[in-house]
Amino acid sequence: MTPTTALPTAVARTHGVGRSVSDVLALTRRNLVHISREPFQLSDVTIQPVLFTLMFVYVFGAGMVLPGGADYKDFAVPGLLVFNLVTSTVGTGVGLSMDVNSGVVDRFRTLPMWRPGILVARSVTDLLTAAVCAGVVAVTGFAIGWSPTDGAGRALAAFALVLLFGYAVSWMCACLGLASKGVETAQALGLLVLFPIVFVSNALVPTQRMTPWLRDLTTWNPVSAVTAAARELLGNPNPASAIHAWPMQHPVYTTLIWSAGLVAVFAPMATFLYRRRAAD
């Protein structure tokens, strides 16, 4: 092996923290440039939240009766915030699958860069787009008459908590994307996994009248916990607080535990899958 071919590996092994951060920033900028050249990539965090908010509030909400007679829009907007942020994480798997299958990873292998940087940069990019999604949901909610009632500090905490959970879920989608053989498969797998999770929850409907086994399932669904936490922090109607189960009585702590657990499991798994795909 010549010194020229050995250089990238040698440099990569001696990367310091500063150089790794620089690599992540450069790759994040690359992802943002790609988005700026094809803005329609942001449709799932700009157009979709508006359509879903209007559709669920004005179409489905017209026939929804909440415990205590609460206004459906006040109940639904926190749930739609979680719904949109979780489903938008499919883009993480799609983006990584595109990079792996398009050959760009082969180019990265020849550069003296931090190997996991592409994964971290993708997660940072998607966290930024998730923040855009959260802003769109909030603006749409304000436009239809929704508002938080417990102050700006708790409202910011609610948005930060939901963004944290979405970031954690994005690592799971990263694994799905890296395990897929094509972009279409990555998208299909992501939707197949995430849609049942978000619909079988308290995000859009109260769960008290569900059959017992389904109510228990929604109670322990992490999406239900983060939704209940958002409603609690925002001061919006939260019927789940009447359910005497630990996740519904302590939704903030439950969300933090789920978020930490998802990152702890899927971040190392994504790194392993990426290394395996890059070595093929």
> What is the first-to-last residue Cα distance?
19 Å
Radius of gyration, whole Å: 20 Å
How many domains, in number, for the residues?
Answer: 1
Low-confidence sequence ranges: 1-14
State the oligomer. Answer: single chain
Describe, in short, the structure shown:
The protein contains 13 helices and no strands. It has helices at 3-13, 17-37, 43-60, 72-88, 90-102, 104-109, 117-143, 152-179, 183-199, 212-219, 222-234, 246-249, 251-279.
Structural description of this entry:
This protein has helices at residues 3-13, 17-37, 43-60, 72-88, 90-102, 104-109, 117-143, 152-179, 183-199, 212-219, 222-234, 246-249, 251-279. By secondary structure, it is mainly alpha-helical. The chain has one domain. Helix 7 (117-143) crosses helix 8 (152-179). The chain is elongated.
Task: Furnish the topology, listing elements before pairings.
Elements (H helix, E strand, L loop, with lengths): L2 H11 L3 H21 L5 H18 L11 H17 L1 H13 L1 H6 L7 H27 L8 H28 L3 H17 L12 H8 L2 H13 L11 H4 L1 H29 L1
Helix pairs in contact: 2-7, 3-4, 3-7, 4-7, 4-8, 4-9, 4-11, 5-7, 5-8, 5-9, 7-8, 8-9, 8-11, 8-13, 11-13
Index terms:
280 residues; 13 helices; 76% helix; disordered N terminus; transmembrane; transmembrane helix
